TrEMBL record:
Domain called Amidase: residue spans: 1-443
Gene Ontology MF terms: ATP binding; glutaminyl-tRNA synthase (glutamine-hydrolyzing) activity; transferase activity
Record keyword Protein biosynthesis present: yes
Protein family membership: Belongs to the amidase family. GatA subfamily.
Lineage, uppermost ranks: Bacteria, Bacillati, Actinomycetota, Actinomycetes, Micromonosporales
Protein name: Glutamyl-tRNA(Gln) amidotransferase subunit A
Enzyme class: ligase
């Protein structure tokens, strides 16, 4: 049924870069056979799932939305995909994204944009617009995203779906094509909080193949989501981030957020204002740290090891082929970030830019630590504005970067964040973000589930 749905609507939505019809039907058949044989099945046996094209899938094209990896079929599965298969899920295909996960609208995909199912003239968020649009268009019940600065939560907010960024290190980065290694976090996308929790439980947990993976089990996010769904938040203390509660967000977003805060109060939560004075520096710090790490990570795309190779006619030097390949293979936003990052890391500038940004990162972490001494979780709107018209922010990078104003702090800190639908503004979905302390992912699921 999902393959039929994809066939019916995806020429308009373009959530998928690759639909693995044969692989999906084969996986579904295996589940059927195992069920018929009375074998024990995985926790999500037979449930279709769409995977952001940032995760390697053995033998199935993985492009990261870039021309530089066009035609590349990885020889191995990422840990997330391996765990999805072990749980019995049926992978439908790979979803569209901004090139190398750099963007907030999926307009920077080298394969054309994804459209928001709520209004096809608007963006579905990014970088994981494909994973969110696939849910909103009922092409998949579950999907996987990756969140470096907001790429799971912001698309969730603008498509009226749920997106959770787990604690950094709570989900494995093995086989996740690296953008900014100290921030990249794969996570679950779904249409309900409980569905996201069920998916989170399957993909999360320690992985010895990722050196930053936390050697602890996933908090019981499923039990927490079920508890939250009872609608009782008595004894839960929530902090509204002063700096993010009004200024900088559209009036319709602020109104929907305020209504939800009231709803949370009615469910028994105690609401207090919490000031996080350094959050206002998160965006500039992020745009030094993320490009710096990207400039280093993307050095591996040299035209030799995988994907595209341009100008290799037998007469050119290795350097020339490398340069021609990178020039043809990377899009403008990726080039902008590589140049920014290379500059910020160069000797003489390192202390002034990268070093300074790392200090800001520490101050933001301190803001979170102080806040969580007062409250169980922090809340804010997920994004300053609802889904914007396609093309309206592509000419000014800063306008695009602003989409992640409220989501970036928790990436710099490493704690979990979730976006849950919290109403409409002019007919378009608004998201509410819940942020929790590191490894307290269960808390955010409880609060988010109570709002549904
Ligand atoms: N929009 C942000 C960026 O462009 C975040 C991207 C992400 O989370 N992958 O970097």
């Amino acid at each position: 049924a999902h393959l039929d749905r994809i066939a019916a609507v995806d020429d308009r939505v373009h959530a998928f870069l690759h639909v693995d019809t044969e692989g999906a039907l084969a996986a579904a058949r295996v589940v059927d056979e195992r069920r018929a044989a009375g074998e024990e099945l995985g926790p999500l046996a037979g449930v279709p799932v769409a995977v952001k094209d940032v995760l390697t899938t053995k033998g199935v094209p993985t492009t990261v939305g870039s021309k530089i990896l066009e035609g590349w079929r990885p020889p191995y599965d990422s840990t997330i995909v391996e765990r999805l298969r072990a749980a019995g899920t049926v992978m439908l295909g790979k979803t569209n994204m901004d090139e190398f996960a750099m963007g907030s609208s999926t307009e920077y995909s080298a394969y054309g944009p994804t459209r928001n199912p709520w209004d096809l003239e608007r963006i579905p968020g990014g970088s994981g617009g494909g994973s969110a649009a696939a849910l909103a268009a009922y092409e998949a019940p579950l999907s996987i995203g990756s969140d470096t600065g907001g790429s799971i939560r912001q698309p969730g907010a603008v498509t009226g779906t749920v997106g959770a960024k787990p604690t950094y290190g709570g989900t494995s980065r093995y086989g996740l094509v690296a953008f900014s290694s100290s921030l990249d976090t794969p996570g679950p996308c779904a249409r309900t909080v409980l569905d996201a929790a069920l998916l989170h439980a399957v993909i999360g947990g320690h992985d010895p193949r990722d050196s930053t993976s936390i050697p602890q089990p996933v908090p019981d996010v499923v039990a927490a989501a079920k508890r939250g769904a009872t609608g009782d938040l008595t004894g839960v203390k929530l902090g509204v981030v002063t700096e993010f509660s009004g200024d900088g967000a559209e009036p319709g977003v602020v109104a929907a957020f305020r209504d939800s805060v009231e709803a949370l109060t009615k469910l028994g939560a105690e609401i207090v204002e919490v000031s996080c004075p350094h959050f206002q520096y998160a965006l500039p710090a992020y745009y030094l740290i993320a490009p710096s790490e990207c400039s280093s990570n993307l050095a591996r795309f040299d035209g030799v090891r995988f994907g595209l190779r341009v100008g290799d006619d037998g007469n050119r030097s290795l350097e020339e082929v490398m340069s021609l390949t990178r020039d043809a293979g990377f899009g403008p936003e990726v080039k902008r970030r590589i140049m920014l990052g290379t500059y910020a890391l160069s000797s003489g500038y390192y202390d002034a830019y990268y070093g300074q940004a790392q200090k800001v990162r520490t101050l933001i972490t301190r803001d979170f630590t102080a806040a969580f001494e007062q409250v169980d979780a922090l809340i804010s709107p997920t994004t300053p504005f609802v889904a914007f018209p396609m093309g309206s922010r592509t000419s000014d990078p800063y306008q695009m970067y602003l989409a992640d104003l409220f989501t970036i702090p928790s990436n710099l800190y490493g704690g979990p964040g979730i976006s849950v639908p919290c109403g409409l503004s002019e007919g378009l979905p608004v998201g509410l973000q819940v942020m929790a302390p590191t490894m307290a992912d269960d808390r955010m699921y409880r609060v988010a589930a109570a709002l549904e």
